[in-house]
């Protein structure tokens, strides 16, 4: 089956990507999240998990044999070389999982949610790049409220991600998510109508 007309949705951690994606999904649009695909490929029995255990040992497993994400995160954010190795292992597996998922899309267009849309070159596979943008201070505040983690780790994650300026440079459309959830949803609905017209024009 042919891949549908595709919007790439991205933004830094804590920007509101998930809330925007949920509004697209509520409008009947097929949404696939690269983070979900990254979880699929490290399920027990999958080659992604086997590769991680081969590299880091059973220290990255929970007692039930599933991936201990916090343990893996500690390994890779303290060593950029390890992070690169993990990305090189998992990226092709995730790419295939996303392609398989999109092949089943029934809506007039689809949305690929990916925090690494720009870094991994996924933006080249989409017709529009939509960036959910917030100032870094607000990102940090939201991450700490959501995850309850320590500030140093949250800042390390922010530093590891693409700069806000570089992300915006690739954007076709931007949601400035500094207001209420209702304002975010209103903007998504506006873009939804725009994307429907664009997708129909390409049919």
From TrEMBL:
Q: What PROSITE patterns does its record include?
A: DPCK
Q: What PANTHER family has UniProt attached to this entry?
A: BIFUNCTIONAL COENZYME A SYNTHASE-RELATED, DEPHOSPHO-COA KINASE-RELATED
Of the GO CC terms on this record, one is: cytoplasm
What is the stated purpose of this protein? Catalyzes the phosphorylation of the 3'-hydroxyl group of dephosphocoenzyme A to form coenzyme A.
For this protein, the record's SUPFAM superfamilies field holds:
P-loop containing nucleoside triphosphate hydrolases
UniProt-annotated location(s): Cytoplasm
- Main localization is cytoplasm
Reactions this protein catalyses: 3'-dephospho-CoA + ATP = ADP + CoA + H(+)
InterPro entries recorded: Depp_CoAkinase, P-loop_NTPase
Sites where the protein binds ATP: 14-19
Which pathway does UniProt place it in?
A: Cofactor biosynthesis; coenzyme A biosynthesis; CoA from (R)-pantothenate: step 5/5
Which chain regions cross the lipid bilayer? none
This chain's source organism reads Thiopseudomonas denitrificans
According to UniProt, the name of this protein is Dephospho-CoA kinase
A Gene Ontology biological process annotation?
coenzyme A biosynthetic process
Single annotated GO MF: ATP binding
The similarity annotation says: Belongs to the CoaE family.
Which key words are in the record?
A: ATP-binding, Coenzyme A biosynthesis, Cytoplasm, Kinase, Nucleotide-binding, Transferase
Has the keyword Transferase been applied to this entry? yes
Q: What is its EC number?
A: 2.7.1.24
């Amino acid at each position: 089956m042919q891949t549908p007309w595709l919007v790439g949705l991205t933004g830094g951690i804590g920007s509101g990507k998930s809330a925007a994606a949920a509004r697209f999904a509520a409008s009947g649009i097929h949404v696939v999240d690269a983070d979900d695909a990254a979880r699929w490929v490290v399920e027990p029995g999958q080659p992604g998990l086997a590769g991680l255990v081969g590299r880091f040992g059973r220290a990255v497993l929970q007692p039930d044999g599933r991936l201990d994400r916090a343990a893996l995160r500690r390994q890779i954010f303290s060593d950029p070389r390890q992070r690169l190795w993990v990305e090189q292992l998992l990226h092709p597996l995730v790419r295939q999982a996303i392609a398989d998922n999109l092949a089943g899309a029934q809506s007039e267009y689809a949305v690929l949610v990916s925090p690494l849309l720009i870094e991994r070159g996924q933006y080249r596979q989409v017709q529009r790049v939509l960036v959910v943008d917030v100032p870094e201070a607000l990102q940090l505040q939201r991450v700490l409220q959501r995850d309850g983690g320590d500030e140093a780790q949250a800042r390390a994650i922010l530093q590891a991600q693409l700069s806000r300026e570089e992300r915006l440079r690739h954007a076709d459309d931007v949601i400035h998510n500094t207001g209420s959830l209702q304002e975010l949803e209103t903007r998504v609905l506006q873009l939804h109508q725009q994307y429907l017209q664009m997708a129909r024009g390409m049919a």
